[in-house]
Amino acid sequence: MNTNLLDATDNVQVLFKSTSVPFGSWSHGHDAQNSFIFSAWNEDLLFKSGHYDYYASPHHSQWTWSTRSANNILVDGIGQLPRSFEAVGEIVHFEHHSDYDVVVGDAHEAYRAPQDHADYPDGKVLEQYRRSIVFLKPDLLIVYDRLQAVCPVTFEYWLHAKNPFQPLEVWFPDGKSSANDKLFAEWLQETFAHTPITEPEAAELIEPLGELRNIGIRVNKVAGRLDVLIPETLEITQTNQYDPNPQPRITEREWHISAKTTEKNPDAEFLLIVRPWKVAETETVPQTDVSWRRDGDELILEAVAGEKKRTIRFGETVTVSP
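RESULT FIELD:
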């Protein structure tokens, strides 16, 4: 889903995958079903992590092929079957419009527990995993997940970026964007002056995240505001290491957030809001400008994008009006 296919420097893009039979996640389609990548003006803000240091290396097979390496969700620590024809998803709804796009994927069949797992005797982990994405072009990305497990579980929400996830105030004091254009480079230099950003100890130098609201992600001259509105409470861990790390010749490190639900439940919802902007061309940091309420089984969002107020209803299907 794109705003301008002719010029990457003027394009905001969402890549989404949910691949059905007969391919699943076999071979080069190993990315987990219902995963997404979000890029803005030729910079990846939320991306697929990991490296191909050599084929089926410990890092390649245990991280790059795993659900943990994508912007996705684990269930009781269980991910999707790696590189498997059986790890299938399905695009169950898609709409394309000039000013917005909608896609819904179903990935519950891709999750399978190890053999002889006491909680999952037949291997089935999920009854439902619907991920709905609404892209109000180019201002607003909405990602809404609804999951139902076969028993009470913890759900673990993963996000990946090139640079640390930090409270917006760290990089944009007083909510000013263009006035703080140079602060990011200065912050990187000062924060990691004595401890290289590639070292495990570097994660101890950044601001810890108590919640996933009012969070900034930044790559060069592009930034994004990130807010997870549902659920309100998550146990958040951020690291710049992989598990396991690639071969020593690969020194690049990316930043990974794992946000885990605090109690075991059979059901879970996640609502992520991302607003991208060009730092030097924007005076103030964008506001979330999204509110939500429930109407029976439906989740209803009121969102402002492009100075237009829209209503998005997540139910049996997804509707956007006007």
